[in-house]
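Milestone M4 deliverable, item 7.
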Amino acid sequence: MILIKLGGSVITDKSEYRKFNKDTVSRLADEIRRSGQEVIIVHGAGSFGHVVSKQFNLQRGYEGDSQIPAMARVMCDTRELSSMVIEELLARDIPAVSVPIGSCFVADKGQLIIENEEPLRRLVDLGVMPVMFGDVITDRSTRFSIVSGDQVMEHLCRMFNPSKVIFVSDIDGLYDRNPKTDKAARMIGTVTKKKMDEIAMESDVDDVTGGGRNKMEAMLRMTDEHRPCYLVNGNAPNRLYSLLKGETVTCTVAKGGLQ
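Output delivered:
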């Protein structure tokens, strides 16, 4: 099994509220189908989650009742986005079903809690792909919090022990600085804990669930001596397909964990 995260920067235009990149998602779904690999998909919220969350400071947790309508709006928007992703998967004969974490689980101080894995495992046993995504969910300590798709990926990685983990983004890999704003940025072929500590990452688009360094740490947490974790450009046609087939592609690979 291979665990894939379709980043919000690929499946949406993060600078425009509720802008779905249908053609890109359709192509990525086709690449997954053609690869013939067993996969589980998580996706980001992109502009369906981050725009309103930032406007109402939902990343801080509950600060007042004025945030509640915004929380409900985000939960509605992320479910609509997930439904659109599911439609593209179903159109390629990939049996997938949306599993909103905010409807199934809770968090505590922003950390997702999955106490009962049985529903997810039974879906997989049936040959149905549970598709989860970053969302606003209720929180035992802060009343609600934002849980990122990266955090969901870590839980699924522990549950299903995939052979590899792939993050699909809108850049070719990880860089020593932001390649969108700095032409001198250099791509990093391999990431280790030592390498990460030497790099200062920035983001030219605000992300309420964490910037580049957080994603690097998340990738490394999902690696071990046998399991690599890749970051690949989903806007490059057939790059995900080639990686799924075990071919060498332009990307960044994380190895060795955080120890």
